[in-house]
Design brief:
Layout: H1 6-13, E1 15-18, E2 24-27, E3 30-33, H2 39-48, E4 58-61, H3 78-94, E5 97-99, H4 109-115, E6 124-127, E7 141-144, H5 147-156, E8 158-161, E9 165-172, H6 181-192, E10 200-205, H7 207-210, H8 214-222, E11 231-234, H9 238-245, H10 256-263, E12 276-281, E13 288-290, E14 298-300, H11 314-324, E15 339-342, H12 344-347, H13 350-360, E16 370-373, H14 378-386, H15 389-395, E17 399-400, E18 421-424, E19 439-442, H16 445-454, H17 461-464
Parallel strand pairs: 3-4, 3-6, 4-5, 6-7, 9-10, 9-12, 10-11, 15-16, 15-18, 16-17, 18-19
Antiparallel strand pairs: 1-2, 2-8, 13-14
Helix pairs in contact: 2-5, 6-8, 13-16
């Protein structure tokens, strides 16, 4: 029997039909939707006079446009208010489970899906959101889709997709002090560029990967698309199964043991061949920060900005530095910053806030910094309060908000002003991503915490020394 990759095993088992010399029709096990990319899809269903084919396979939550203050009040922004209202209306009309504002299950779609037990190994998962790759941490094929494809899944529970090539990225060794999964993926993207994974679906492997917690794996898979890949995933293992067993909705489910027996088979065969293989040494990775306008423009926090673009695209390199107000060869440490944001579907889980508190506890934020702490879900918000993390942040001068996408993107009130520098634990640093003219520096929660305390770009290892 031919050896197969895990990607092949999952993909091939979901093929409904293969189009000769064309794409495959793939069955979708789980469909997540939110208020931004779903309204047009539902309008399409109405125009065609059809229902959602399998509404129980779709889960909805409001996250992108919602405010993170005074969520008990009516949303002030008219566009946001209308989009959230339309999502609630559409879900009611078409029989879809919906977690709206103030619902105890509300939160960012890629945070609540896993924590509520909707994301499982071996699934095919889609959402009208580019960071759907987050769910790959569970050994699922998960990727973002466009609005027309959202309508396709709603109407048929299938999608037409060309099969990507396969890449395996192996990271072995022990990460050093202050190095998180966010730093690992930022290091990889910096090494292979923001387009280095184009055309591939990536399996992450190696001892540095398997040693990660589930929440850390979600962070890594979340940013796998920032290297241009279709998605990224990790084979399920005991860490995965232990996480799933801890979810209240899955406890006592009679079929879980049988499902787990099948999930244990979800691994790449020893002799399987990938289209491309890359290997990294975790010991060589340092805490990272971006300096430009795409996630591939990243360096160790204690390094200097390159003198030029090694890929030869000097015009783009110069444009990015001009936007960011930096110069080639500039050393990042000590550069003043204005904002710090911890949250988003990348780093909005409880482990991220625990890590952030490691450095914050007993200290005060710098006077020149506006710092927003935004949990990824109502459950995370509750855990932060119960564990005393909220009190730690508030005593340090931080503003703790209610759940939502917040400052990850400029689609709500939490925008970064033009020209201001924001150390952000989110996933993208494009021009204007956090607000028109905003300057985004992507980093891990540890690096963000160090910057919040000092008011400058700082090395978190200085705060973690014994």
């Amino acid at each position: 029997m031919e050896a197969k990759t895990l990607f092949d095993k999952i993909w091939d088992s979901h093929v409904v039909r293969s189009i000769e010399n064309g794409p495959d029709v793939i069955y979708i096990d789980r469909h997540y939707i939110h208020e931004v990319t779903s309204p047009q899809a539902f309008n399409g269903l109405r125009q065609r006079g059809i229902q959602v084919f399998r509404p129980q396979k779709t889960i909805a939550t409001a996250d992108h446009n919602i405010p993170t203050k005074d969520q008990h009040l009516e949303i002030r922004d008219e566009l946001s208010r209308n989009q959230v209202a339309r999502l609630a209306e559409n879900c009611k009309t078409f029989g879809i489970e919906y977690f709206g504002l103030n619902n105890p299950k509300n939160g960012i779609v890629h945070v609540v899906g896993p924590e509520l037990g909707y994301t499982l190994p071996g699934m095919t998962i889609v959402c009208g959101d580019s960071h759907t790759s987050t769910h790959g941490a569970f050994g699922a094929i998960a990727f973002g889709i466009g609005t027309s494809e959202v309508e396709m899944v709603l109407s048929a529970q299938c999608i037409v997709q060309p099969k990507p090539k396969k890449m395996r990225i192996t990271v072995n060794g022990q990460p050093g002090c202050g190095v998180t999964s966010k730093d690992i993926i930022m290091h990889i993207i910096a090494e292979i560029s923001a387009g280095g994974g184009a055309g591939y679906f990536v399996e992450f492997a190696g001892t540095a990967i398997t040693s990660l917690s589930m929440e850390a794996r979600m962070t890594l898979c979340n940013m796998s698309i920032e290297m241009g890949s279709r998605g990224g995933f990790i084979a399920p293992d005991e860490t995965t199964f232990n996480y799933l067993r801890s979810i209240p909705s899955l406890q006592g489910v009679a079929s879980l043991d049988a499902a787990e027996a099948q999930w244990r088979k979800l691994k790449t065969d020893n002799d399987a061949i990938f289209d491309k293989e890359l290997v990294f040494d975790a010991a060589c990775i340092k805490p990272m920060i971006t300096y430009g306008t795409n996630p591939g423009m990243g360096i160790p926090v204690d390094a200097s900005i390159p003198l030029g673009d090694t890929g030869g695209n000097e015009a783009t390199f110069a444009k990015a530095l001009n936007y960011m107000g930096f110069k080639p060869g500039y050393k990042m440490l000590g550069h003043p910053i204005d904002y710090v944001f911890i949250g988003s579907c990348t780093n909005g889980r409880i482990e991220d806030f625990r890590a952030f508190a490691q450095i914050i506890k007993g200290r005060r934020k710098a006077a020149n910094v506006t710092a927003l702490v935004v949990p990824g879900s109502k459950k995370v918000e509750e855990m932060m309060q119960n564990e005393g993390l909220t009190k730690i942040y508030e005593e340090a001068g931080f503003e703790v908000r209610q759940p939502g996408c917040s400052s990850c993107l400029a689609m709500n009130d939490d925008k970064i002003p033009a020209g201001k520098y924001a150390v952000s634990t989110s996933n993208r640093n494009f021009e204007g991503r956090q607000g028109p003219g905003a300057r985004t520096l992507l980093a891990s929660p540890l690096t963000a915490a160090a910057a919040a305390i000092t008011g400058t770009i700082s090395d978190p290892r200085e705060f973690l020394k014994n």
